[in-house]
Amino acid sequence: MARVDGIIEGRFSFNSRDGRFRRLFREALQRPPQGVERITTVRSVSLSRRPTKTMVGLTRYSRVRYFLVLSRPQQTITFYSYLLSALSDPAAVAVMAHELAHAWLNEHEKPEESRQREREADALAREWGFGPELEALDREAETV
Ligand SMILES: [Zn+2]
Q1: pLDDT band at 114 (very low <50, low <70, confident <90, very high)
Q2: Is the dihedral of CA 143, 39, 2, 131 positive or negative?
Q3: Rounded distance from Cα 118 to ligand 1 centre (Å)
């Protein structure tokens, strides 16, 4: 994906040709306020077609070794088209904001299993201005 100004800084692979997904993700990237520290460890964002009834988005944090004792963090964000395609545009944007908030928290707070941080991620996405989208998501789905 070409560089876009947004919450993710630097290059990352963007594995989807889905026009709606690309448009909505670009919107989610650009919405957080300018003063917010960027996320620099996201290396890949993809839309998976694997059927799942339980997951709509997942952010993974890991450390990649590049010498014996050195490692650097990297993150991947995966969305699942099966559930994402059933959501309205605002609710889908809320899912994206929520995953971006996980990535931000992993990088700027402490890396922990994302699942333990659901409320924190929602609160941060709300701070970034995604309140109406999160409410749409609440009406349409039980969990992210
Ligand atoms: Zn979550």
Answers
A1: low
A2: positive
A3: 5
The token pair that represents 29 in the structure block? 């990237």
122 CA to middle of ligand 1, Å? 8
Q: Is residue 111 very low, low, confident or very high in pLDDT (cuts 50, 70, 90)? A: low
How many residues are listed for the chain in this entry?
144
CATH of domain 13-140: 3.30.2010
The model's pLDDT over 23-37, given as tens digits with 9 standing for 90+, comes to: 999 999 999 998 999
Separation between Cα atoms, residue 48 and residue 30, nearest integer Å: 22
How far, in Å, is the centroid of ligand 1 from the Cα of 107? Answer: 15
**Tokens found for residue 95:** 């899912």
Residue with tokens 């520290």: 37
Which residues are close to ligand 1, an ion, with C-beta < 5 A?
Answer: 118, 144
Of the candidates 77, 11, 8, the one whose C-alpha atom is nearest the C-alpha of residue 48 is 77
